[in-house]
Write a structure and sequence with these properties.
Distance between the termini: 41 Å
Number of helices: 4
Structural class: alpha+beta
Number of strands: 8
Order of helices and strands: EHHEEEEEHEEH
Helix content: 25-40%
Radius of gyration: 15 Å
Largest sheet: 8 strands, antiparallel
């Protein structure tokens, strides 16, 4: 397995609290995250040490642990399993591609009600191009939702 990193940034004109609300609000998360898979949603409690699941409409996705959460500033997830039809896999070939990968979102203030949204995601090289394109669309959609 060969891993890489995706690092993307986008300027957003909104308060950090509003950006965070759009980022993780139940309806708005689904709107921007649908750039990865239709029906994408987040299940779980966004508190440090808690488990969350990033799932699509078919209940396929990634299980992660929240390792850092500073609301409206930074959150980091540590992927620790894959999910197929509601069942968690931590030992299969696909699971091995995701376990140990971290995904972080960060807001840096650049002006009054202006923030740079930064995403850093580890990724298997075989998925790098697809996820870079998906992330680019997703952060563009996030910006639109925050600024409307």
């Amino acid at each position: 397995m060969s891993r890489s990193n995706i690092h993307l940034e986008i300027a957003i004109n909104a308060s950090k609290e509003h950006i965070w609300e759009v980022l993780f609000g139940k309806e708005t998360f689904t709107e921007w995250a649908s750039e990865f898979a239709e029906g994408s949603h987040l299940e779980g409690d966004l508190k440090e040490g808690r488990t969350v699941c990033f799932l699509d409409a078919s209940q396929k996705g990634i299980r992660s642990k929240v390792i850092v959460h500073k609301p409206s500033e930074k959150i980091t997830f540590h992927h620790n399993g894959v999910i197929f039809k509601g069942s968690v896999d931590t030992e299969g070939e696909e699971a091995k591609k995701w376990i140990g990968i971290e995904e972080a979102y960060l807001l840096n203030q650049t002006g009054e009600n202006q923030y740079l949204f930064i995403v850093d995601v580890g990724i298997e090289k075989e998925y790098e191009e697809m996820f870079t394109e998906s992330w680019q669309r997703a952060i563009e959609r996030l910006k639109q939702l925050c600024e409307q």
